[in-house]
Write a structure and sequence with these properties.
By secondary structure, the protein is mainly beta. It contains 1 helix and 7 strands, in the order H-E-E-E-E-E-E-E. Strands 1-2-3-4 form a 4-stranded antiparallel sheet, with no helix packed on it. The chain has a 3-stranded antiparallel sheet with strand order 5-6-7, with no helix packed on it. A hairpin with a 5-residue loop joins strand 5 and strand 6. The radius of gyration is 14 Å and the shape is globular. The two termini are about 25 Å apart.
Length: about 100
């Protein structure tokens, strides 16, 4: 994760944080509408989805859990007001999860 201003200054920008929680290549990168959350996922390994809080630059530690039935993640998107996150799986499922931090849908 880079600071946008540093990227405009030159090619020697250093990352603020590296997301090391995924061990395979990233296939999807999606920001929520406010730019507070970043969803990164890979379809190469089961359960490979992480949410990054861009204020703290840390992954959300309590979601997804080992019991969240994500399978192989093909797509991810947020609802317009970030109240929900939708996850498409390789099983043909469209999983919808409520993000209670955001009061509006």
């Amino acid at each position: 994760i880079y600071n946008r201003d540093d990227l405009h200054r030159g090619s020697s920008a250093k990352p603020l944080r590296a997301v090391m929680n995924l061990t395979t290549s990233v296939g999807n990168v999606t920001f929520n509408s406010t730019g507070e959350l970043l969803a990164v996922s890979s379809k190469e390994l089961k359960q490979s989805l992480r949410l990054v809080n861009l204020h703290s630059l840390h992954c959300v530690p309590n979601w997804p859990t080992g019991k969240t039935p994500l399978n192989y993640v093909n797509s991810v998107n947020f609802s317009p007001n970030s109240g929900y996150i939708g996850v498409g799986s390789s099983k043909g499922q469209a999983l919808l999860y409520r993000l209670t931090h955001y009061p509006s849908f």
